[in-house]
Design brief:
six-stranded mixed β-sheet, single chain, binds nicotinamide-adenine-dinucleotide, Aldehyde Dehydrogenase, Chain A, domain 1, 482 residues
Length: 482
Amino acid sequence: MSDDKGDGGLTADVDSAVERARAAQAGWARLSFRERRRALRALAARTRGDEELARLISSETGKPLFEAIGFEIAYLCELTRFLSGSEGRRALVETRRASLIFPHKRARVTWHPRGVVAVIGPWNFPLLNNFGDAVAPLLAGNSVLLKPSPHTPRTSRRMQALWHETGLPDGVFQVVEGGAETGSALVDACDMVFFTGSLANGRQIAARAGARLIPYVAELGGKSAMIVLGDADLYAAARAAVWGAFAGAGQVCIRVERALVEAAVAGEFARLVADEAGKLRLGHGGDVDMGPLLLPEQIERCERLVADAVARGARVMVGGKRRSELPGLFFPPTVLDGVPHEADVARAETFGPVLPILHVADAEHAIRLTNASCLGLSGSVWSRDRGRALALARRLETGSVCINDVLVNYFFVSAPLGGIKSSGLGFRHGAEALQQFCTPRTIVEDRPMFGPIANWLRRQLGFPYRPRVLQVLRWLLRAIYR
Ligand code: NAD
């Protein structure tokens, strides 16, 4: 996407950071879950009241202060609360049911941290997709090296400062700044990689991690569809489309990338969306709804996609031209109606404030177009018939789906969230996310009450093999696995 400079031959810095992280990790892993929870909750509590952090998120991305606090800081607090709670603790020590063949035994699974985890983050959410993705690996007992995007390093620097101000141990969480070269050096030196960014870079990192056979989680791009059926509450759907497409100036991975609307209501829906989109207040910082784009190539991409769609017969309902009179890279909320599926904007990730509306014949048509994408991150289904909406949601090939809502799936930190197909590997969120940053080890032992029986069974099942025992086994196999 961008040339992503910012290295300057920093692999020596990476090596020494990895060394420090390794040295610190052992002590961090020895702490109990409760102690790590206390540490991370104390840090989250600091972020909650840190005006400088909120200001930095807003100023380095251009997003409104409301989104800096309401999306990013609130998310970090909720994520930390949930993952460090009882479900998170239970996820890391488990007792499994006995095997029917050895009913006198039980298995205990313990989850051991992988070591040093590299979290490589994008620029669009400098807290949520950067330090936010360090929370699970840290709670699981890993140390983390966070490499933010060179476009937005200041939020992560602030998190590093808050880590120290909270009195948390040196070396366990470190920020390593740089671009693609630094990211590659981290992939070559760490024990696991958690990457959020573009598909092209995600593929390159997958190859590199694969060569070292280290685990890799990738959260990549999306082309999330909003499917609006004829019986939907059109006004609610239109308002949600505007929020889902233009929050973060459209630079949100799970944003509404396309609306697929049943033809009978598509015209009315497009009018409502355009009306609402036209009301958004553009500007910087405080009392605004939408900020500028971050990179010149983003605005050029929006222009290119709009031009292509118009050439193919789409109609610009609102927006469509950059706002050069405003200070910064402003591209207004843009609504395109009657976009054909062949248009680039209907198929490739836009990652900017352009919403294409496609008219579809019926729900089946919408499902076909949605699933035709190689991306499968998120989506939504809009209908007053909840049963029908749920049945359609189940057929969408995406990591998550909202019914009659958009974006809020990101805040369901108790449930796994990730992309399928080319949108990613692995997931974030849910107590299961903690296990992802660990290797399981299984310990099998006798159940406490079964001591003498266990000894007797060991004698029966070991050498020398006896025909009588085999006979019993045959009988048991027939009885149990009918
Ligand atoms: P990007 O791929 O350009 O960069 C992401 C990070 O990777 C940056 O820190 C960058 O320096 C680093 N990097 C780049 N090349 C690398 C390499 N070869 N090896 C190691 N590190 C490398 O992505 P971006 O432009 O910052 O972010 C936008 C993209 O991220 C969009 O496609 C968006 O959909 C996606 N995204 C996805 C999610 C999600 O959860 N699925 C969330 C946010 C953003």
